[in-house]
């Protein structure tokens, strides 16, 4: 058994083998711990030791606060995985992709040369920080203007959408679907956090003008706070760098060192037995198929449908493997879906958080195996209790 200090709170000491029955399954956050076993298998080769005198300077090997070696490895990773065109693109590093969201709103809105603020929009269901950051900064440059669909209908009467900045999350958080921009003539920020073979088929390299990525969902190292943007236009790039310069003077050099080490391990294992994407996709697709089997036994609930697609990375049609289940309560009386789940000991994230309806709940599938097993167990119990009283 595991030592008691490492027990998940739902398992009991001394050896963490006993699951406490009254403990809720927490499927709320997107904590990417499904990759922890992968790094346990690569503990020595992925370790970093930094001497006290090392990397003390503000300066970096590359311009604008980036390590050239890390930049080179990022370009190589995109090329080998085939998920994004990274050649001839400028790269900006951020403290997680979270920092880059507003850096890019700043950069794109300043370029629009319009009299009023830029209109920032996203399509329902969307990742809440796009709206929350725009509201928080409350700037003269950019204003949250709600959901894309309401503007798409009006675009013919307004004419050009050049003052709009559209967030497109592809695959989407929460529903895992590949999305495209809706407004023509607007600027788009493509959030590609989940565009890795763990979570989706890769039909073609992404090639948008502005794309953001994060190591949180690639290697699973959310704690290091590392993301990057690939930017086509030089002026947009320069204004993004201005923001990062004033905001944090670049990403921690310690973090850059750690990420470089991790990416070297990932690259070294690609295509082999210990390919991180083979591991990630196997884990996520197994979880998805198990959850689907349970949910499909009942008419009370449904999950999103993810069409199988050819994946250029695996060179086959790959089974769906989304990061989240976007669960729907189908019965009239279950309008508050999260309350139905909570009564059965399952904590999910309400649909209203994503500006969707409360018939939907997001269930995180990318936490630890224990977390997932508990979720499945509670879901099975909920569904069999319900079916037996019907
Ligand atoms: N974009 C999306 C769609 C996400 O789901 C997340 C994390 N949940 C982020 C951005 C931010 O990730 P991070 O700041 O850890 O890079």
UniProtKB/TrEMBL annotation:
Coiled coil: none annotated. Its cofactor is pyridoxal 5'-phosphate. Residues 25-382 form the Alliinase C-terminal domain. One of its GO terms (biological process) is amino acid metabolic process. Keywords: Membrane, Pyridoxal phosphate, Transmembrane, Transmembrane helix. GO terms for molecular function: carbon-sulfur lyase activity; transaminase activity. The keyword Transmembrane applies. Belongs to the alliinase family. This is Tryptophan aminotransferase-related protein 4. It comes from Dioscorea zingiberensis.
């Amino acid at each position: 058994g595991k030592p008691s200090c490492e027990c998940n709170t739902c398992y009991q000491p001394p050896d963490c083998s006993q699951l406490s029955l009254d403990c809720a399954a927490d499927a709320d956050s997107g904590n990417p711990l499904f990759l922890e076993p992968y790094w346990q298998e690569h503990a020595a080769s992925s370790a970093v030791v930094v001497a006290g005198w090392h990397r003390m300077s503000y300066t970096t090997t590359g311009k604008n606060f980036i390590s050239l070696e890390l930049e080179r490895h990022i370009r190589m990773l995109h090329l080998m995985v085939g998920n994004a065109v990274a050649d001839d693109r400028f790269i900006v590093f951020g403290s997680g992709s979270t920092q880059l969201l507003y850096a890019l709103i700043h950069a794109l809105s300043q370029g629009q040369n319009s009299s009023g603020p830029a209109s920032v929009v996203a399509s329902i269901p969307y990742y809440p920080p796009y709206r929350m950051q725009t509201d928080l900064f409350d700037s003269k440059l950019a204003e949250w203007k709600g959901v894309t669909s309401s503007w798409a209908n009006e675009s013919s009467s307004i004419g050009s959408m050049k003052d709009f900045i559209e967030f497109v999350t592809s695959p989407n958080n929460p529903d895992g679907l590949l999305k495209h921009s809706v407004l023509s003539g607007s600027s788009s920020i493509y959030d590609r956090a989940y565009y890795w073979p763990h979570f989706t088929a890769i039909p073609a390299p992404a090639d948008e003008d502005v794309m953001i990525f994060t190591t949180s969902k690639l290697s699973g190292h959310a704690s290091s706070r590392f993301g990057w943007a690939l930017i086509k236009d030089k002026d947009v790039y320069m204004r993004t760098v201005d923001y990062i310069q004033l905001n944090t003077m670049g990403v921690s050099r310690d973090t850059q060192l750690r990420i470089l080490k991790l990416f070297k391990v990932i690259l070294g294992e690609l295509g082999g037995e210990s390919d991180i994407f083979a591991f990630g996709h196997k884990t996520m697709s197994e979880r998805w198929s198990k959850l689907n089997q349970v949910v499909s036994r009942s008419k009370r609930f449904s999950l999103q449908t993810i069409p199988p697609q050819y994946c250029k990375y695996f060179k086959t049609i790959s089974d769906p493997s989304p990061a989240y289940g976007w669960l729907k309560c189908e019965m009239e009386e279950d309008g508050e879906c999260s309350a139905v789940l909570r009564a059965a000991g399952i904590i999910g994230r309400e649909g209203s958080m994503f500006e969707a309806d409360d018939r939907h709940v997001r269930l995180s599938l990318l936490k630890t195996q224990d977390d997932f097993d508990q979720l499945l167990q509670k879901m099975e119990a909920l569904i069999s209790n319900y079916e037996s009283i019907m």
